[in-house]
Specification:
Keywords: Lipoprotein, Membrane, Transmembrane, Transmembrane helix. Helices cover 17% and strands 34% of the residues. By secondary structure, it is an alpha+beta fold. The strands form nine sheets. Strands 23, 24, 29, 30, 31 and 36 form a six-stranded mixed β-sheet that branches. Strands 25, 26, 27, 28, 32 and 33 form a six-stranded antiparallel β-sheet that branches. Strands 1, 2, 3, 8 and 11 form a five-stranded mixed β-sheet that branches. About 5% of the residues have low confidence.
Length: 558
């Protein structure tokens, strides 16, 4: 009996020591793996993914088996092995049941060894195949867990999705790990080595073999979601990289743009590369922004292409709030799609309304020039020469400057304006009245982000004296995620800083927090700035006060 108790104490002590040893889990090959915490940040081309479901699957053992070749004959008889084999080797007559052969020359078979790089590529290629891919690797790996990411500080079994910033955490084993979506689609392959390791996942750019970046050195300002607010007068210069590993036989890359972005040229940095063809897919020339096709041979080094594009003039109502992008796509040598999306470029600007604040009415006839402060000097925008230096605002040559007049939208980079569209969807729409009201309005789009802009009057409003005073304004565009996961925008076109709220409804295309107008007062005065929250709170507060007074009167006199 005493011996039994002694043995029991020894077993308990051993278990306690094992438990205190740092949660080491013995690997199938005898290699220890440690459990660590990892942090995931998931986005779609910079926009945080709220409510995204992601899982982590450790495949370290499968990875090491592919390197060592220690694959048993029994493992070649599994359903997943046969499914992957059938998918890759369609000619069943020549199929060796013990071998999985990839078109890029890589092979999986018992005794077949690979370098760490080759094994990594094999794991990645199999996951990209979808379907049986993850099942094949988990079968090869042996017992493994599918760990779901969850929100930090929320408990292990609750909120198993990303928060409003696209963030989530998980506790996983170290080693090669596949990040999968909630519907089991492959997202990213990472090597987990450290506690609190941070992982960035961009679902629009999951494959490093294709990438496209904006290279304009003058564009430094970025929004909270990584997009660029650009000066539309300048060409956009992109660099496209195609990995030599994307397709060992050569292939085709398609470059296309969103609606308001036009590709001007695509060229190779290496002009000596033979059998490389670059052409527009629309040879008839009847498409505004046609796709471009790049056909490349087998590559011995990465292919680098320069892409030049420009933004097209766009009516304020048609501006894409999330911006314009280029998309590059191709097929790799196992038939999987490879896609990359450029950072978004955003068009912003500001709207203005000519007004007499004292008489509370719209006015017409004024003319202005667009300027910006540069240190202690000024620059005025010219249709022909862009931004030009001036020393005295009272000595501006209106023949050289771009003169702004009511009824027009000015798109930076275009020599001629176009008329502000009529608000035909307005419930009390009248064409003649709309035309008359539009003559009080000026719209400017295509300005880069900045708080140093101004409009300077050079001709007075009809029947008023000229007041030589600049009207300062800012251009901005920013984003956030709402409580329901939708993207909320905050731009200088949507939120005017100086308004006359009593006349806003007179403006045909005015919409609160969608298309707002800054006041250009004929006497140079300004209206008190009121932010969006205050505009909501003040009416509610006034209503509450009225209701409170009415209740008191009812109590006292009824």
């Amino acid at each position: 009996m005493k011996n039994n108790k002694k043995n029991l104490y020894i077993i308990i002590a051993f278990c306690i020591l094992l438990f205190m040893g740092g949660y080491k889990v013995v690997h199938a090959e005898g290699q220890p793996q440690e459990r660590v915490s990892i942090e995931l940040y998931a986005s779609n081309n910079g926009t945080p993914i709220r409510g995204g479901i992601f899982n982590a699957i450790n495949l370290e053992n499968a990875y090491k088996k592919l390197m060592s070749g220690e694959i048993s004959l029994e493992e070649t008889q599994t359903a997943s092995w046969k499914a992957i084999q059938a998918q890759l080797q369609t000619d069943k007559v020549e199929t060796n049941t013990d071998i999985i052969q990839f078109s890029n020359g890589l092979t999986i078979a018992p005794g077949m060894k690979h370098t760490s790089e080759e094994a990594y590529r094999l794991v990645e290629n199999i996951l990209k195949m979808g379907g049986w891919g993850s099942t094949f690797l988990t079968d090869l790996n042996g017992p493994t867990e599918k760990i779901r990411f969850r929100q930090a500080g929320r408990g292990r079994d609750s909120n198993t999705f990303t928060n409003e910033k696209g963030e989530a955490v998980a506790t996983v084993l170290t080693g090669l790990t596949a990040i999968m979506s909630g519907d089991n689609n492959f997202q990213k392959l990472v090597n987990i080595t450290d506690d609190n390791q941070k992982l960035k996942l961009d679902t629009a750019n999951k494959d490093r073999r294709l990438s496209i970046t904006l290279k304009n050195e003058d564009i430094k300002e970025r929004s909270s979601f990584g997009s660029y607010i650009v000066d539309a007068s300048k060409p956009l210069n992109y660099q496209l990289k195609v990995s030599k590993d994307i397709n060992h036989l050569g292939g085709v890359i398609i470059v296309k743009s969103t609606a308001n972005l036009t590709i001007d040229s695509v060229s190779s940095v290496d002009e000596s590369l033979e059998d490389l063809t670059i052409e527009q897919t629309n040879t008839l020339g009847d498409v505004i922004n046609p796709e471009w096709q790049v056909t490349f041979p087998a590559l011995t080094r990465d292919l680098v292409l320069n892409v030049t594009a420009h933004l097209m003039p766009t009516a304020v109502k048609d501006i894409q709030k999330m911006g314009e992008t280029l998309t590059v796509s191709g097929i790799d040598d196992i038939g999987s799609s490879v896609v990359s999306v450029s950072p978004a470029v955003v068009v912003s600007g500001a709207n203005f309304v000519m007004m007499d604040n004292q008489k509370n009415k719209l006015v017409t006839g004024g003319e202005y020039v667009l300027g910006r402060y540069v240190g202690k000097t000024y620059q005025i925008y010219s249709k022909q020469d862009g931004w030009t230096d001036v020393t005295n605002l009272n000595e501006i040559d209106s023949d050289k400057a771009m003169v702004l007049q009511g009824g027009n939208q000015y798109f930076i980079g275009e020599t001629e304006p176009f008329s502000i569209p009529k608000a035909t969807n307005r419930f009390n729409y009248d064409s003649d009245v709309n035309d008359k009201l539009n003559k009080s309005l000026i719209q400017i789009t295509g300005l880069a982000q900045g708080d140093n802009y101004f409009l300077y009057p050079i001709k007075p409003v009809s029947n008023y004296k000229l007041v030589r005073r600049p009207f300062n304004f800012s251009v901005f565009s920013d984003f956030s995620i709402g409580s329901n996961g939708s993207v909320l925008t905050n731009t200088s076109l949507e939120n005017a800083k100086i308004q006359n709220f009593s006349l806003n409804t007179t403006i045909p295309d005015f919409q609160t927090n969608v298309n707002e107008y800054n006041v250009l007062d004929v006497k140079g005065s300004s209206v008190t700035t009121v932010n969006s929250l205050t505009r909501i709170i003040i009416p509610i507060a006034v209503l509450c006060i009225i209701m409170f007074v009415v209740m008191i009167l009812l109590v006292r006199f009824v």
